[in-house]
Amino acid sequence: MIPTSHYLYLALALFTIGVLGVLTRRNVIIILMSIELILNAVNINLVAFARHFGSVDGQIFAIFVVTAAAAEAAIGLGIIIAFFRNRETVLADEMDMLKW
Amino acid sequence: MDAVVEFLKPHLLPLLWAVVIVAVLPLVAGYIVLLERKVMADIQARLGPMRVGPHGLLQPIADALKLLLKEDIIPANADKWIFWIAPLISVTAAMLALSAMPFGPVFQIADLNVGLLFIVAVSSLGIFGIVLGGWSSNSHYALLGALRSAAQVVSYEVAVGMALVSGLLLAGTLSMRKMVEAQAEQGVWFAFLVPVGFFIYLVAGIAELNRAPFDLPEAESELVAGYMTEYSGFRWALYFLGEYTAMIVVSGIGTTLFLGGWLRPFPNVAAFDFLDYLPAVLFLALTGYCFYRAPKQPVPIQKAVMGLFGVLCLGITAALGWAVTLPAEAVARAGILGAFWFLAKVFLFLYSFMWFRFTFPRYRFDQLMRLGWHFLIPVSLVNVMGVGAALVLHRQAGWPLWQGLVLGTVVTLAVAAWLILVRQRRPVAAPSAGGEV
Amino acid sequence: MVEQFTFYFFAALAVISAVLVVTVRNAVYSAVFLITTLLATAGIFLQLRAEFLFVVQIILYVGGIMVLFVFVVMLVDLDVALRQVQFNRQKWVALLVVLAVAGQLVFALALGSEALGLPAAAPESLEPNTESVGLRLFESYMLPFEIASILLLVAMIGAVLLGKRQKPPRSEA
After folding, report:
1. Would residue A11 count as lying in a domain?
2. Which residues of C touch B143 (CB under 8 A)?
3. Model confidence over B34-55: pLDDT tens digits?
4. What's the mean pLDDT in B138-163?
5. Is residue B338 helix, strand or coil?
6. B81 to chain C nearest CA, in Å?
7. ipTM reported for the complex, 2 dp
8. Which CATH number covers residue A31?
9. What DSSP state is assigned to residue A38?
10. B128 to chain C: which residues are within 8 Å by CB?
11. How high is the mean pLDDT of chain C?
12. C-alpha neighbours within 13 Å on the C-beta side of residue B306
């Protein structure tokens, strides 16, 4: 049986990679994908603890996380499409209309 | 070494089934194509393929050879990796879905606790094969076809899911095997309990398969061949294999959940036991026909091939006849007869797909979207609520189940009629937003 | 043995493709690698005996959300975007910060791993997985479930509104 901490290390790796993607990429779509990575890492933790404690609550929270991810992706991509239509760019650092 | 053998022991039979499926499926898909061409010819009062082998019976093999020998073309500006991998995704997704399909009480690779969901999930991955293939071809026709396909499949997945839920509520399980057992227990195919759900599954299933009359993604008069435009040779054949496997998957789900899976008609009525002999008699008749036609073929080699097919049919007859003579509780008997009935029902589905293809004109894209979102999804939602209400009445108030279901079906049909008669009169805004896809 | 193999296989697959998600140039490749990561995670869920979540992950995440992503990437992706600089100016600072945080987390995990040595529950306690998830979801978590469905409804309406093209063509950007 794999110790629970191994799952946590895996989730940690995915989380770190996701944060790195959010912080460094310029393409907004890839930033959104990195956020999915982060949420996924959270899910691994939740499910790993669900097995560790032998209760399904963790899995249920993972389902809620997936729900939130679906809503977030739909809205985020909608915003990207609307923005692309107006400004013809998907680069995060060119989305600077609020700066002045 | 011994450890490996020990480990493999319980997995031997599933492995064998998997190998059988992977080995036989391309052949079956080829013959489904031949069947489709023959059905098309029949509906259009032609003969169809007649040259290769007697009655064109070797045509699929000739086609496969041609496709294998064709030059493998990758467009210069295509994205090579994705172009290469997209057809594989299509085929793999469809084949993986077969791994939980019960082709009979014995012939099933794995009976999963979440079987139906697994099949739906895995087969929904096939969409990536289409979308990525269309994108990587770097061609407008292919891209438009892929976008259309993605929109269509995602929209109709909701209706398919809801139709499946209406059957699942009655079965009370997600395992494919237990679904069939539930139908054996209740003594009725669920298609008769939830006819609306079955109908919606059929229509939305065809839409999910991108088949006529919903074959917008590959409408040849508009998009050449849609996402497959740039594909040729073996990759194209892989897409075709994926498509026909997906047809088998959709038919298999419908058979299992709505048409009683491997059960023969009236499985619990002793008076219908003679139906067990039907498969053998059917194949005996086919054998007789093959031998009767063999001397009438024009060329000696065709005579020989026709005779060979006769021998093949005789072999199947022997297997089916042997199965019937076994005692009722023998595994082989249940397995062989069950596989026959399951495949017969699957082919019923496939025949109806072909029949629809050759008799209905193609929808326009906005009509397709309106049918999905404005008709099938609301009706399927009402249907699920009706089935749920019937079950609650059955369990809490002690109503007979069929009364509640009849009531639910009537309400659903009323809603459907209202949607057709009242909503369709209203002027619909010109298709502007969706027009570009 | 088998369990170890599946875990490390899926874990390696997930991590490698996650790295590729954030490093490749082409957004379509990113999406493909993200699909791989998600499928590998689904495998890990299966290995953790969460069959229902395994299927949910494939149906919703891979079959739903990722189709949206691929769709949008194909609509939006420009050949220009490939030739632009892919990383922003803060990349080295970001890398440093992320490594620092990761180091802290690893340290914390290493410190706390004795606590995780608590006797793990028997895997059978999750056994009829779909049933127990369903029962718990509709008994203890009814209200969150309803709130989640309202969230989805709001998101749906929002997405439709965002995607809708305004009737007058945009005046002047």
Report:
1. no
2. 74
3. 988 888 888 888 888 888 878 8
4. 84
5. helix
6. 10
7. 0.87
8. 1.10.287.3510
9. H
10. 35, 66-67, 70
11. 81
12. 22
How far is residue B106's CA from residue B113's CA, in Å, rounded to a whole number? 17
Contacts of C54 in chain B (CB under 8 A): 114
Structure tokens at B15: 């492995």
Instruction: Write out chain B residues lying below 8 Å of C130, CB-based.
Output: 113-114, 174
Domain annotation covers residue A81: yes
On whether the CB atoms of residues C52 and B112 are closer than 8 A, the answer is no
End-to-end CA distance of chain A: 57
Give me the domain span that covers residue A40: 27-92
* DSSP output for B352-419: HHHHHHHHSPPPPHHHHHHIIIIIIHHHHHHHHHHHHHHHHIIIII---HHHHHHHHHHHHHHHHHHH
Q: Do C62 and B125 touch (CB under 8 A)?
A: yes
pLDDT digits (tens, 9 = 90+) for B308-323: 888 888 888 888 888 8
Beta strands in chain A (DSSP E): none
The answer, yes or no, to whether residue B435 has pLDDT greater than 50, is no
Chain-chain contact of B433 with C67 (C-beta, under 8 angstroms): no
Contact C21 A24 (CB under 8 A): no
CA distance B250 to B245: 9
Report the 10 Å Cβ neighbour count for B294.
18
Give CA–CA dist B53/B58, Å, rounded: 5
Chain B CB within 8 Å of residue C58 CB = yes
In chain A, DSSP finds a helix count (H) and a strand count (E) of 3, 0
Locate the chain A residue with the closest alpha carbon to C137: A60
In sequence order, what are the beta bridge partners of C87?
Answer: A25
- State mean pLDDT over B276-291: 84
At A53, the amino acid letter reads F
Kindly tell me if the per-residue pLDDT of A95 is higher than 90: no
- The reported pLDDT for the residue numbered B433 is 45
Binary contact (C148, A26; C-beta < 8 A): no
**Nearest chain B CA: its distance from C58 CA (Å):** 6
Rounded CA separation B242/B236 (Å)? 10
Determine which of A51-60, A91-100, B124-133 has the lowest per-residue pLDDT on average. Answer: A91-100
Q: Where are the strands (E) in B47-139, listed by range? A: none
pLDDT (0 to 100) of residue B251: 92
Identify the residue whose tokens are 């014995």. B106
**Are the CB atoms for C54 and C37 separated by under 8 Å?**
no
- Compare all CA atoms of chain C with the CA of B86 and give the residue at the minimum distance: C32
Please judge whether C38 and A36 are an interchain contact, meaning their C-beta atoms are less than 8 angstroms apart. Answer: yes
* CB contact at 8 A, B376 and B196: no
Residue B406 has pLDDT above 60, yes or no: yes
What's the pLDDT score for residue C38? 92
pTM: 0.85
Tell me, yes or no, whether A15 lies in a domain: no
Q: Percentage of chain B with pLDDT > 70?
A: 94
Angle between helices B233-258 and B12-43 (to 10 degrees): 100
Query: Within 10 A of C82 (CB to CB), how many other CB atoms are there?
Result: 11
Average pLDDT over chain B reads 83
Contact B433 C2 (CB under 8 A): no
Q: Is residue A2 part of a domain?
A: no
Please calculate the CA angle B185-C56-C133 and round it to the nearest 5 degrees.
65
Do C15 and A37 meet the contact criterion of CB atoms below 8 Å apart? Answer: no
Task: Output the pLDDT for position C82.
Answer: 66
Dist. CA C23–CA C27, nearest whole Å? 10
Number of domains making up chain A: 1
- Is the CB of residue B88 less than 8 Å away from at least one CB of chain C? no
C53 CA to chain B: closest CA distance, Å? 10
